[in-house]
Amino acid sequence: MEIHQIPSLRSPVMVIAFSGWNDAGEAATGAASHLLASWTDSSTDVVPELIADVDPEDFYDFQVNRPTVYVDDSHIRSLTWPGTQVFGLRTPEIDHDFVIVRGVEPSMKWKTFA
C-alpha cells in the first residue's frame, strides 16, 4: 500500500465498495462515487483527499481482473491496473467525516488485504 497522506478526520465513518459480482447494479460503487462527487465543491475546498493506493500485485488474479488499455487521440497507450483507492472526505456540514474505500474486489489474500 502506498500511503500518500493521513488526514485529520472527525469521527470518520468508513464506506467500502468493491466492484465485481457482489456489486449488483453498481449499488456499492455507485454509492461511493456519489458520496465522493456530492461533497466535491471547489468553491469551499471540500474535495476528496487520496489517502492511499493499494498495490494490486498480491491481491488480484489478473486473468479475472485484467488491466485496461486506453489509447488517446495521439495514439499514446496507457495501462490501468485494477486496484483499490482510499479517500478521506471532510464534511463540515455534518458531525462525521468519511473514509471511502473504492476498488475491485480482491481475488486472494483477504486477511492481508483487510
Describe the structure in your own words.
This protein is α+β, with helices and mostly antiparallel strands. It has a single domain (2-113), classed as PAC-like subunit (Rossmann fold, 3-Layer(aba) Sandwich), CATH 3.40.50.10900. The protein is 14% helix and 32% strand. It has 2 helices and 7 strands. It has helices at residues 27-38, 110-113; strands at residues 2-3, 13-19, 49-54, 68-71, 77-80, 84-89, 98-104. The strands form 2 sheets. Strands 1-3-6-7-2 form a 5-stranded mixed β-sheet, with helices on one face. The protein has a two-stranded antiparallel ribbon with strand order 4-5. Strand 6 (84-89) and strand 7 (98-104) form a beta hairpin. The longest helix has 12 residues, at 27-38. It is globular, with a radius of gyration of 16 Å. The chain starts with a strand and ends with a helix. The mean pLDDT is 90.
What's the topology here?
Elements: E1 2-3, E2 13-19, H1 27-38, E3 49-54, E4 68-71, E5 77-80, E6 84-89, E7 98-104, H2 110-113
Parallel strand pairs: 2-7
Antiparallel strand pairs: 1-3, 3-6, 4-5, 6-7
Summarize the structure.
The protein is an alpha+beta fold and 114 residues long. The chain is built from 2 helices and 7 strands. The chain is 14% helix and 32% strand.
